[in-house]
Design a protein that fits this description.
It is a single chain. This protein folds into two domains: 104 residues, 2-Layer Sandwich (Phosphorylase Kinase, domain 1), CATH 3.30.200; 196 residues, Orthogonal Bundle (Transferase(Phosphotransferase), domain 1), CATH 1.10.510. 28% of the residues lie in helices and 21% in strands. A hairpin with a 5-residue loop joins β8 and β9. α4 runs antiparallel to α6.
Length: 309
């Protein structure tokens, strides 16, 4: 079984050499800008469409890289092209030119949840959780599992609109679940069924949202990410996170329920409820003049549990 840790993807780690002339030649309709970030397998450049004046981000990868990586890159583009939701980063184009693979996508300039979560209120955290859950409900409805939900992949546009990004290891599933061909993702956010190479389903992404929200609300992750990987995985497989202190009980109950260790009813979960319908969330904005958390939005423990110990 191939184990792939993608926790460093998308971080500006440097060391990636971008031939800007070749990228510019492949995208003559765009004016290239600054390097936005780089990772082990590529980089992201800012760009501007010359005629439409639309800001975009260009994800660049060499097709001569790791075996199978270009196929995964193309899969990400196809997956994003098939999704249309206000809380999912949109893709505009995909090109393969010589040995370059390029995804032209929506540029979001408001930073990541990792950067913005310090001191965040429970109300704002709930609004973000609802927005991400709405985005994933849309993806799951199209048969797509994200598999790498984490704070680094939850972005904000300039107006504060929540955007889910990086479907690079997304998996297509048919019905309620899919078998994992490899263990892929970021260890701190991996659901038990990922670690044990079990059947994956919507609750797999739900587990990761629970970890994200726990980290925001508790100001620390549920388990120590500095543990050796086997020890960290054992925690995910067998242990319950410590109780959330100072968090409204209905919110804490839902966040902890999402992180229980054995998924059931993957196709019948009802993780979020709202007194004004959860589907009213798709324009939740953080840090804008609109309230981040309206009185009609709530996270309820009612309904069949998504996960059971």
């Amino acid at each position: 079984m191939l184990v792939r840790d993608v926790s460093s993807l998308g971080k500006g780690v440097g060391g990636v050499i971008i031939d800007r002339e070749r990228v510019a030649s492949a995208l003559p309709g765009y004016q290239l800008g600054d390097l936005l970030g780089s990772g082990a397998f590529g980089a992201v450049l800012a760009a501007q469409h010359r005629r439409m004046d639309r800001p975009v981000a260009v994800k660049v990868m060499s097709a001569a890289g790791e075996d199978g990586l270009p196929d995964r890159f193309a899969t990400e583009a196809r997956v994003l092209a098939g999704l249309d939701h206000p809380h999912i980063v949109r893709v505009h184009d995909y090109l393969e030119v010589d040995d370059l693979c390029l995804i032209v996508m929506e540029r979001v300039g408001g930073g990541t949840l990792t950067r913005r979560r310090a001191g965040m209120s429970a109300e704002t955290a709930c609004a973000i959780g609802l927005a991400v859950a709405a985005a994933l409900e849309h993806a799951h409805g199209k048969g797509v599992l994200h598999r790498d939900i984490k704070a680094d992949n939850i972005l904000f546009d300039d107006a504060g609109l929540v955007k889910v990004a990086d479907f690079g290891i997304a998996k297509i599933f048919d019905g309620s679940a899919a078998a994992a061909s490899m263990i892929a993702g970021t260890p701190m956010y991996m659901a038990p069924e990922v670690i044990s190479a079990g059947r994956l389903g919507p609750a797999t992404d739900l587990y990761a949202i629970g970890v994200v929200l726990y980290q925001v609300l508790a100001r620390r992750p549920p388990f120590d990410p500095s543990l050796p990987l086997p020890a960290l995985w054992q925690q995910h497989l067998t242990a319950a996170p410590p109780p959330l202190q100072g968090v409204p009980e209905p919110v804490a109950e839902v966040v902890l329920r999402w992180q229980r260790t054995r998924p059931i009813a993957l196709s019948q979960r009802t993780p979020l409820r709202s007194t004004s319908q959860v589907r009213a969330v798709p324009t939740a904005r953080i840090g804008s003049r609109e309230p981040a958390f309206r009185s009609g939005w709530t996270m309820m423990s009612a309904g069949p549990p998504a996960r059971s110990r």
